[in-house]
Protein backbone atom coordinates (compact mmCIF):
# COMPACT_ATOMS: atom_id res chain seq x y z
CA UNK A 1 0.00 0.00 0.00
CA UNK A 2 1.39 3.43 -0.97
CA UNK A 3 2.26 5.62 1.99
CA UNK A 4 0.70 9.06 2.07
CA UNK A 5 2.17 12.36 3.31
CA UNK A 6 0.47 15.74 3.57
CA UNK A 7 2.88 18.64 3.97
CA UNK A 8 1.63 21.96 5.32
CA UNK A 9 3.73 24.86 4.07
CA UNK A 10 5.14 25.43 0.59
CA UNK A 11 8.45 27.07 1.48
CA UNK A 12 11.80 25.44 0.81
CA UNK A 13 11.50 23.12 3.84
CA UNK A 14 8.13 21.83 2.69
CA UNK A 15 9.10 21.51 -0.96
CA UNK A 16 12.41 19.77 -0.20
CA UNK A 17 10.58 17.38 2.14
CA UNK A 18 8.06 16.68 -0.63
CA UNK A 19 10.88 15.79 -3.02
CA UNK A 20 12.54 13.45 -0.54
CA UNK A 21 9.23 11.77 0.30
CA UNK A 22 8.33 11.36 -3.37
CA UNK A 23 11.75 9.80 -3.97
CA UNK A 24 10.80 7.35 -1.21
CA UNK A 25 7.62 6.36 -3.01
CA UNK A 26 5.18 8.38 -0.94
CA UNK A 27 2.03 9.88 -2.38
CA UNK A 28 2.56 13.53 -1.45
CA UNK A 29 0.45 16.66 -1.34
CA UNK A 30 1.64 20.12 -0.31
CA UNK A 31 -0.81 22.66 1.11
CA UNK A 32 0.22 26.32 0.89
CA UNK A 33 -1.86 29.10 2.45
CA UNK A 34 -0.78 31.83 0.04
CA UNK A 35 -1.21 32.01 -3.70
CA UNK A 36 2.39 31.05 -4.50
CA UNK A 37 4.98 28.54 -3.39
CA UNK A 38 8.47 29.41 -2.21
CA UNK A 39 8.05 31.38 1.00
CA UNK A 40 11.23 33.33 1.71
CA UNK A 41 12.58 32.20 -1.69
CA UNK A 42 10.18 34.44 -3.57
CA UNK A 43 11.45 36.98 -6.08
CA UNK A 44 10.25 39.99 -8.06
CA UNK A 45 11.08 41.38 -11.54
CA UNK A 46 13.76 44.06 -11.82
CA UNK A 47 15.91 45.16 -14.74
CA UNK A 48 14.73 42.38 -17.02
CA UNK A 49 15.73 39.76 -14.45
CA UNK A 50 14.47 38.58 -11.08
CA UNK A 51 15.71 39.30 -7.57
CA UNK A 52 15.03 37.85 -4.12
CA UNK A 53 12.80 39.75 -1.69
CA UNK A 54 15.44 38.98 0.93
CA UNK A 55 19.10 38.77 -0.07
CA UNK A 56 20.44 35.27 -0.60
CA UNK A 57 23.81 33.74 -1.26
CA UNK A 58 25.32 30.28 -0.87
CA UNK A 59 28.51 29.02 0.74
CA UNK A 60 31.07 26.76 -0.90
CA UNK A 61 30.43 24.11 1.78
CA UNK A 62 26.64 23.95 1.23
CA UNK A 63 26.61 20.22 0.46
CA UNK A 64 22.86 19.74 0.72
CA UNK A 65 22.05 22.69 -1.54
CA UNK A 66 24.61 21.61 -4.13
CA UNK A 67 23.06 18.14 -4.08
CA UNK A 68 19.55 19.46 -4.74
CA UNK A 69 20.75 21.78 -7.50
CA UNK A 70 22.41 18.84 -9.27
CA UNK A 71 19.31 16.68 -8.76
CA UNK A 72 17.26 19.37 -10.51
CA UNK A 73 19.68 19.62 -13.42
CA UNK A 74 20.53 23.30 -12.89
CA UNK A 75 24.14 22.91 -11.78
CA UNK A 76 25.26 24.97 -14.76
CA UNK A 77 23.37 27.94 -13.31
CA UNK A 78 25.37 28.02 -10.07
CA UNK A 79 28.29 30.43 -9.92
CA UNK A 80 30.76 31.22 -7.14
CA UNK A 81 32.50 34.55 -6.91
CA UNK A 82 34.92 36.30 -4.61
CA UNK A 83 33.14 38.87 -2.45
CA UNK A 84 34.25 41.81 -0.35
CA UNK A 85 33.14 42.85 3.11
CA UNK A 86 33.47 46.07 5.03
CA UNK A 87 32.72 47.38 8.51
CA UNK A 88 31.44 50.88 9.22
CA UNK A 89 32.83 52.04 12.56
CA UNK A 90 33.54 55.48 14.04
CA UNK A 91 32.11 57.09 10.93
CA UNK A 92 34.53 55.32 8.58
CA UNK A 93 34.36 52.34 6.23
CA UNK A 94 37.05 49.72 6.80
CA UNK A 95 37.74 46.78 4.52
CA UNK A 96 37.39 43.55 6.47
CA UNK A 97 38.49 40.70 4.24
CA UNK A 98 41.93 39.57 5.37
CA UNK A 99 44.43 39.60 8.25
CA UNK A 100 46.00 42.68 6.67
CA UNK A 101 42.63 44.46 6.83
CA UNK A 102 42.33 43.52 10.49
CA UNK A 103 45.74 45.05 11.17
CA UNK A 104 44.55 48.28 9.53
CA UNK A 105 41.37 48.43 11.61
CA UNK A 106 42.21 51.49 13.71
CA UNK A 107 39.41 51.26 16.32
CA UNK A 108 41.27 48.30 17.85
CA UNK A 109 44.72 48.18 19.41
CA UNK A 110 47.20 45.51 18.34
CA UNK A 111 46.35 43.52 21.47
CA UNK A 112 42.61 43.86 20.75
CA UNK A 113 43.17 42.61 17.19
CA UNK A 114 45.02 39.56 18.46
CA UNK A 115 42.16 38.77 20.86
CA UNK A 116 39.59 39.26 18.10
CA UNK A 117 41.46 36.90 15.76
CA UNK A 118 42.04 34.27 18.44
CA UNK A 119 38.50 34.23 19.77
CA UNK A 120 36.96 34.24 16.28
CA UNK A 121 39.17 31.34 15.22
CA UNK A 122 38.30 29.41 18.35
CA UNK A 123 34.56 29.90 17.93
CA UNK A 124 34.50 29.26 14.18
CA UNK A 125 36.82 26.27 14.07
CA UNK A 126 37.24 24.61 17.46
CA UNK A 127 34.33 25.27 19.84
CA UNK A 128 31.47 22.79 20.27
CA UNK A 129 28.18 24.67 20.34
CA UNK A 130 26.71 22.21 22.84
CA UNK A 131 29.21 23.45 25.44
CA UNK A 132 28.21 27.10 25.12
CA UNK A 133 24.43 27.22 25.24
CA UNK A 134 24.30 28.48 28.81
CA UNK A 135 26.45 31.57 28.34
CA UNK A 136 25.51 34.66 26.39
CA UNK A 137 27.55 36.01 23.49
CA UNK A 138 27.96 39.33 25.26
CA UNK A 139 29.26 37.83 28.52
CA UNK A 140 31.74 35.54 26.77
CA UNK A 141 32.96 38.19 24.33
CA UNK A 142 33.51 40.79 27.04
CA UNK A 143 35.54 38.26 28.99
CA UNK A 144 37.63 36.76 26.21
CA UNK A 145 37.58 39.17 23.25
CA UNK A 146 37.80 42.19 25.52
CA UNK A 147 35.73 45.26 26.21
CA UNK A 148 37.03 47.40 23.35
CA UNK A 149 36.71 44.63 20.76
CA UNK A 150 33.21 43.78 21.91
CA UNK A 151 32.04 47.41 22.01
CA UNK A 152 33.66 48.22 18.66
CA UNK A 153 32.47 45.20 16.68
CA UNK A 154 30.31 42.59 18.32
CA UNK A 155 27.93 44.58 20.52
CA UNK A 156 26.58 46.93 17.82
CA UNK A 157 26.09 44.01 15.43
CA UNK A 158 24.25 41.97 18.06
CA UNK A 159 22.20 44.99 19.14
CA UNK A 160 20.91 45.78 15.65
CA UNK A 161 20.19 42.12 14.84
CA UNK A 162 18.60 41.03 18.12
CA UNK A 163 17.34 44.29 19.63
CA UNK A 164 16.07 43.80 23.19
CA UNK A 165 17.25 40.16 23.14
CA UNK A 166 20.89 40.96 22.36
CA UNK A 167 22.13 40.22 25.88
CA UNK A 168 20.44 36.81 25.95
CA UNK A 169 21.69 35.32 22.68
CA UNK A 170 23.67 32.16 23.48
CA UNK A 171 27.25 31.82 22.34
CA UNK A 172 26.13 28.63 20.58
CA UNK A 173 24.43 30.81 17.95
CA UNK A 174 27.61 32.79 17.24
CA UNK A 175 29.55 29.54 16.90
CA UNK A 176 27.12 28.45 14.19
CA UNK A 177 27.32 31.84 12.49
CA UNK A 178 31.12 32.00 12.43
CA UNK A 179 31.46 28.41 11.31
CA UNK A 180 29.31 29.19 8.27
CA UNK A 181 31.48 32.15 7.27
CA UNK A 182 34.89 30.65 8.02
CA UNK A 183 34.23 27.43 6.16
CA UNK A 184 33.54 29.47 3.04
CA UNK A 185 36.97 31.14 3.22
CA UNK A 186 40.26 30.00 1.77
CA UNK A 187 43.31 31.84 3.11
CA UNK A 188 41.12 34.77 4.03
CA UNK A 189 39.40 34.95 0.64
CA UNK A 190 35.67 34.32 0.69
CA UNK A 191 33.70 32.98 -2.24
CA UNK A 192 29.92 32.97 -2.24
CA UNK A 193 27.49 31.35 -4.63
CA UNK A 194 24.44 32.54 -6.52
CA UNK A 195 22.04 31.03 -9.04
CA UNK A 196 21.78 32.76 -12.39
CA UNK A 197 18.24 34.02 -12.70
CA UNK A 198 17.83 34.19 -8.89
CA UNK A 199 16.20 31.63 -6.62
CA UNK A 200 13.36 31.61 -9.13
CA UNK A 201 15.61 29.20 -11.07
CA UNK A 202 15.66 26.79 -8.13
CA UNK A 203 11.99 27.22 -7.31
CA UNK A 204 10.80 26.69 -10.90
CA UNK A 205 12.95 23.58 -11.36
CA UNK A 206 11.86 22.12 -8.02
CA UNK A 207 8.16 22.67 -8.69
CA UNK A 208 8.50 21.09 -12.14
CA UNK A 209 10.28 18.09 -10.63
CA UNK A 210 7.59 17.67 -7.98
CA UNK A 211 4.87 17.74 -10.61
CA UNK A 212 6.77 15.11 -12.60
CA UNK A 213 6.80 12.98 -9.44
CA UNK A 214 3.00 13.41 -9.16
CA UNK A 215 3.22 15.57 -6.05
CA UNK A 216 -0.05 17.47 -5.61
CA UNK A 217 0.62 21.19 -5.12
CA UNK A 218 -2.38 23.02 -3.68
CA UNK A 219 -2.21 26.75 -2.96
CA UNK A 220 -4.76 29.04 -1.29
CA UNK A 221 -5.20 26.27 1.27
CA UNK A 222 -4.73 27.54 4.80
CA UNK A 223 -5.26 24.82 7.38
CA UNK A 224 -8.03 25.86 9.74
CA UNK A 225 -8.64 22.74 11.82
CA UNK A 226 -7.00 19.50 12.88
CA UNK A 227 -9.09 16.36 13.26
CA UNK A 228 -7.63 14.43 16.19
CA UNK A 229 -9.15 11.27 17.65
CA UNK A 230 -7.65 9.33 20.55
CA UNK A 231 -4.38 11.20 20.23
CA UNK A 232 -4.08 10.57 16.49
CA UNK A 233 -4.23 13.13 13.69
CA UNK A 234 -6.61 11.59 11.18
CA UNK A 235 -7.21 14.61 8.98
CA UNK A 236 -7.24 18.37 8.57
CA UNK A 237 -9.48 20.98 7.00
CA UNK A 238 -8.98 24.04 4.83
CA UNK A 239 -11.78 26.43 3.86
CA UNK A 240 -12.34 24.43 0.68
CA UNK A 241 -11.44 20.83 1.48
CA UNK A 242 -10.86 18.20 4.14
CA UNK A 243 -7.91 15.83 3.76
CA UNK A 244 -7.40 12.57 5.60
CA UNK A 245 -5.05 9.64 5.90
CA UNK A 246 -1.33 9.08 6.23
CA UNK A 247 1.26 11.28 7.90
CA UNK A 248 1.25 15.08 8.27
CA UNK A 249 4.38 17.23 8.27
CA UNK A 250 3.97 20.88 9.28
CA UNK A 251 6.75 23.17 8.04
CA UNK A 252 5.06 26.49 8.79
CA UNK A 253 6.20 28.75 11.68
CA UNK A 254 5.27 27.57 15.17
CA UNK A 255 3.12 30.64 15.88
CA UNK A 256 0.68 29.31 13.26
CA UNK A 257 0.93 25.68 14.34
CA UNK A 258 0.25 26.49 18.00
CA UNK A 259 -3.15 27.96 17.14
CA UNK A 260 -4.13 24.66 15.53
CA UNK A 261 -3.11 22.50 18.50
CA UNK A 262 -4.55 24.81 21.18
CA UNK A 263 -7.29 22.89 22.91
CA UNK A 264 -6.19 19.71 21.15
CA UNK A 265 -2.87 19.14 22.93
CA UNK A 266 -2.24 21.82 25.56
CA UNK A 267 1.21 20.50 26.43
CA UNK A 268 2.35 20.87 22.83
CA UNK A 269 0.66 24.27 22.64
CA UNK A 270 2.54 25.52 25.69
CA UNK A 271 5.84 24.32 24.24
CA UNK A 272 5.24 26.02 20.90
CA UNK A 273 3.92 29.15 22.61
CA UNK A 274 7.38 29.79 24.06
CA UNK A 275 8.88 30.31 20.60
CA UNK A 276 9.03 33.89 19.32
CA UNK A 277 10.13 35.25 15.97
CA UNK A 278 11.97 38.26 14.65
CA UNK A 279 10.52 40.16 11.77
CA UNK A 280 12.70 41.51 8.98
CA UNK A 281 12.51 44.25 6.42
CA UNK A 282 14.57 44.69 3.27
CA UNK A 283 14.49 48.06 1.58
CA UNK A 284 15.83 47.50 -1.92
CA UNK A 285 17.27 50.49 -3.76
CA UNK A 286 17.30 50.63 -7.54
CA UNK A 287 20.26 52.96 -8.21
CA UNK A 288 21.93 54.70 -11.13
CA UNK A 289 25.37 54.00 -9.66
CA UNK A 290 26.84 51.86 -6.88
CA UNK A 291 27.18 53.10 -3.32
CA UNK A 292 30.63 51.54 -2.85
CA UNK A 293 32.84 48.67 -3.97
CA UNK A 294 31.80 46.33 -1.13
CA UNK A 295 29.29 43.54 -1.44
CA UNK A 296 28.51 43.53 2.27
CA UNK A 297 28.88 46.36 4.79
CA UNK A 298 28.22 45.65 8.46
CA UNK A 299 27.14 48.72 10.44
CA UNK A 300 29.04 48.74 13.74
CA UNK A 301 28.10 52.26 14.85
CA UNK A 302 25.09 52.42 17.13
CA UNK A 303 21.91 54.29 16.33
CA UNK A 304 21.56 53.26 12.69
CA UNK A 305 18.17 51.95 11.47
CA UNK A 306 19.71 49.08 9.50
CA UNK A 307 22.36 46.53 10.31
CA UNK A 308 23.76 45.87 6.88
CA UNK A 309 24.04 47.24 3.37
CA UNK A 310 24.23 44.48 0.78
CA UNK A 311 25.11 45.71 -2.71
CA UNK A 312 23.89 42.84 -4.84
CA UNK A 313 25.41 44.20 -8.05
CA UNK A 314 28.86 44.23 -6.46
CA UNK A 315 28.39 40.46 -6.37
CA UNK A 316 26.35 39.76 -9.51
CA UNK A 317 27.03 42.00 -12.50
CA UNK A 318 24.72 44.98 -13.01
CA UNK A 319 24.75 44.09 -16.73
CA UNK A 320 22.30 41.30 -15.89
CA UNK A 321 19.87 43.95 -14.60
CA UNK A 322 20.04 46.39 -17.52
CA UNK A 323 22.91 48.18 -15.76
CA UNK A 324 20.84 48.92 -12.69
CA UNK A 325 22.72 48.94 -9.38
CA UNK A 326 20.91 47.19 -6.55
CA UNK A 327 21.41 47.54 -2.81
CA UNK A 328 19.55 46.05 0.15
CA UNK A 329 19.16 47.89 3.45
CA UNK A 330 18.54 45.09 5.92
CA UNK A 331 17.01 45.13 9.38
CA UNK A 332 15.75 42.47 11.80
CA UNK A 333 13.35 43.59 14.50
CA UNK A 334 11.32 42.28 17.40
CA UNK A 335 7.62 42.91 17.70
CA UNK A 336 8.29 45.34 20.58
CA UNK A 337 10.38 47.70 18.46
CA UNK A 338 8.91 50.79 16.82
CA UNK A 339 9.78 49.66 13.30
CA UNK A 340 7.36 46.72 13.64
CA UNK A 341 4.43 49.13 13.42
CA UNK A 342 5.84 51.57 10.89
CA UNK A 343 4.54 51.83 7.34
CA UNK A 344 6.82 51.19 4.39
CA UNK A 345 6.97 54.95 3.76
CA UNK A 346 8.01 55.61 7.35
CA UNK A 347 10.76 52.98 7.16
CA UNK A 348 12.11 54.46 3.94
CA UNK A 349 12.03 57.97 5.40
CA UNK A 350 13.92 56.75 8.47
CA UNK A 351 16.61 54.81 6.61
CA UNK A 352 17.56 56.97 3.64
CA UNK A 353 19.10 59.94 5.54
CA UNK A 354 21.62 57.59 7.13
CA UNK A 355 23.06 56.65 3.73
CA UNK A 356 24.41 60.21 3.44
CA UNK A 357 26.26 59.74 6.75
CA UNK A 358 27.98 56.62 5.45
CA UNK A 359 28.54 57.62 1.83
CA UNK A 360 29.41 61.32 1.71
CA UNK A 361 28.84 61.58 -2.04
CA UNK A 362 25.48 59.80 -1.98
CA UNK A 363 22.74 61.71 -3.76
CA UNK A 364 19.10 60.61 -3.27
CA UNK A 365 18.50 61.55 -6.92
CA UNK A 366 20.49 58.45 -7.89
CA UNK A 367 17.60 56.30 -6.63
CA UNK A 368 15.24 55.38 -9.47
CA UNK A 369 12.97 53.06 -7.49
CA UNK A 370 12.52 51.59 -4.02
CA UNK A 371 11.03 48.21 -3.12
CA UNK A 372 10.14 47.13 0.42
CA UNK A 373 9.57 43.55 1.55
CA UNK A 374 8.70 42.47 5.07
CA UNK A 375 8.10 39.26 6.97
CA UNK A 376 7.03 38.62 10.56
CA UNK A 377 8.85 35.29 10.76
CA UNK A 378 12.39 35.86 9.54
CA UNK A 379 14.21 34.07 12.36
CA UNK A 380 13.53 32.57 15.77
CA UNK A 381 14.40 34.42 18.96
CA UNK A 382 17.00 32.16 20.56
CA UNK A 383 17.95 32.65 24.20
CA UNK A 384 20.09 30.68 26.64
CA UNK A 385 19.63 26.91 26.45
CA UNK A 386 17.36 27.36 23.46
CA UNK A 387 17.73 23.74 22.38
CA UNK A 388 15.51 22.80 25.31
CA UNK A 389 12.70 24.79 23.66
CA UNK A 390 13.06 23.08 20.28
CA UNK A 391 10.44 20.39 19.84
CA UNK A 392 11.30 17.06 18.29
CA UNK A 393 10.18 16.30 14.76
CA UNK A 394 7.85 13.69 16.19
CA UNK A 395 5.12 15.28 18.30
CA UNK A 396 2.91 13.87 21.05
CA UNK A 397 0.06 13.68 18.51
CA UNK A 398 0.46 10.52 16.45
CA UNK A 399 1.00 11.15 12.70
CA UNK A 400 1.79 14.86 13.33
CA UNK A 401 5.37 15.91 12.61
CA UNK A 402 7.07 19.31 12.77
CA UNK A 403 10.05 20.66 10.81
CA UNK A 404 10.61 24.38 10.49
CA UNK A 405 12.94 27.28 11.17
CA UNK A 406 13.21 26.39 14.86
CA UNK A 407 15.17 23.29 13.91
CA UNK A 408 17.86 25.33 12.14
CA UNK A 409 19.30 26.39 15.51
CA UNK A 410 22.18 26.80 16.37
CA UNK A 411 22.99 27.53 12.75
CA UNK A 412 21.86 30.54 10.73
CA UNK A 413 18.87 30.57 8.40
CA UNK A 414 19.77 29.54 4.84
CA UNK A 415 18.40 27.49 1.96
CA UNK A 416 21.01 24.83 2.62
CA UNK A 417 20.10 24.54 6.30
CA UNK A 418 16.41 24.28 5.45
CA UNK A 419 17.21 21.32 3.18
CA UNK A 420 19.20 19.73 6.01
CA UNK A 421 16.19 20.11 8.32
CA UNK A 422 13.98 18.51 5.66
CA UNK A 423 16.35 15.58 5.34
CA UNK A 424 16.51 15.03 9.09
CA UNK A 425 12.73 15.19 9.49
CA UNK A 426 12.23 12.69 6.67
CA UNK A 427 14.85 10.38 8.15
CA UNK A 428 13.17 10.44 11.57
CA UNK A 429 9.87 9.65 9.82
CA UNK A 430 11.47 6.45 8.53
CA UNK A 431 12.45 7.47 5.01
CA UNK A 432 15.71 6.64 3.27
CA UNK A 433 17.87 9.78 3.13
CA UNK A 434 21.18 8.06 2.41
CA UNK A 435 21.27 9.68 -1.04
CA UNK A 436 21.51 13.17 0.54
CA UNK A 437 25.05 14.26 1.44
CA UNK A 438 25.55 15.73 4.89
CA UNK A 439 27.82 18.75 5.01
CA UNK A 440 29.00 20.61 8.09
CA UNK A 441 25.64 22.24 8.80
CA UNK A 442 24.74 22.30 12.48
CA UNK A 443 21.02 22.41 11.62
CA UNK A 444 18.46 19.69 12.06
CA UNK A 445 20.19 17.73 14.78
CA UNK A 446 18.27 18.76 17.89
CA UNK A 447 14.88 17.42 16.77
CA UNK A 448 16.31 13.95 16.18
CA UNK A 449 16.41 12.87 19.80
CA UNK A 450 13.84 14.62 21.98
TrEMBL record:
Protein origin, superkingdom: Bacteria
InterPro entries named in the record: Amino_oxidase, FAD/NAD-bd_sf, Zeta_carotene_desat/Oxidored
Single Gene Ontology MF annotation: oxidoreductase activity
Domain Amine oxidase, residue spans: 12-374
SUPFAM superfamilies noted in UniProt: FAD/NAD(P)-binding domain (SSF51905)
PANTHER family the UniProt entry points to: AMINE OXIDASE, PROTOPORPHYRINOGEN OXIDASE
Protein name: FAD-dependent oxidoreductase
Organism expressing this protein natively: Larkinella terrae
Amino acid sequence: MTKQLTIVGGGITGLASAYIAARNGYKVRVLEASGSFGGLLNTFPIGGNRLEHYYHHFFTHDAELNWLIKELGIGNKLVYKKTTMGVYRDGKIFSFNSPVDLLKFSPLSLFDKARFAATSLFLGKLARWEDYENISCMDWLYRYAGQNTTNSLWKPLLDIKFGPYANDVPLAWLIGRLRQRMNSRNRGEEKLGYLQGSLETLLTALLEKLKALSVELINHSMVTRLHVEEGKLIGLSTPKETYSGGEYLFTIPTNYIKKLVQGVDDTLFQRLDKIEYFGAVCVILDLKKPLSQNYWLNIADSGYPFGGIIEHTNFISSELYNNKHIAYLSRYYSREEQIADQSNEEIIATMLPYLKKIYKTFNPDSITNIHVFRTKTAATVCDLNFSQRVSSYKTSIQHLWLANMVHIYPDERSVNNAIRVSAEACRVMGMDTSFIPEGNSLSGKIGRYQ
